[in-house]
Structure formats: C-alpha cells, structure tokens
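hey so i finally got around to running the thing on that chain from the lab meeting. sorry it took forever, my laptop kept dying and i had to restart like 3 times. anyway pasting the input first so we r on the same page abt which one it is
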Amino acid sequence: MGTVSAGQSEEGGNIAAESTVHRLRVNWIGRGKTYPKAGNYLYENGSKVCFRVTYVGKGYIFDHWEANGEIITERKFCLLIDRNYQVIAYFREVESPMEYVSGFKSSYPWFKRVVIVPI
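ok and heres what got predicted. didnt touch it at all, straight out
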C-alpha cells in the first residue's frame, strides 16, 4: 500500500491531494479467461472493480472465484477496493459429458434438460 498524488502541482494553482492506492492481482487456474485479464493492477481506495468470465476452454467449466480466500460462485461479481486483493478464477476440467452439460446448464438458465442415451 502506498500513496499517490493527484492533480497539478501547487504552481499550477491546484493543491495536490493524496489518496491510498491498493494492489489487485488477477489470475486464473485451468483453461479460461477473465475480465480484467490476468495481471497486476493499482486502484485508488474506494474504486469499484467488476469481474466476469469471458471464455471457458473446451473440456472445462467455470467452477468459482476466490477473492482473498472468500469463495464466489457467480460468473460475475464486483469488489469495492479497500485493501490489496488477490482474485483467482478457477476453471475445472470436466470429468464426464454429463458434468459438462450440468455446468453448461448452470451457466445458461434458458438451457433445457438434456438426456444422453447410449446406443
């Protein structure tokens, strides 16, 4: 955590204001992508940052997010930045075709039940 000055110098007529800056580290495990992309970011205290899953790789499903140890199961969520955060998206490899269908169904509420019958 540190401080950053905002505004122009005193010579320019504006008094510099100080605000606290926090670090945000975004990462993912498995095959998938997020917004914001994986990386390190700096945000001023009180900033709102929204996260979402943008891509899930073939053979994987989105499982959950973890933000400083807290589990979040929604595909989209927002944080109010009031400290340093590490946010990780977990994409889990599908073990069976039915699990893939189940993951798809939970991600898309309009999806109807599918029954796979062996031939």
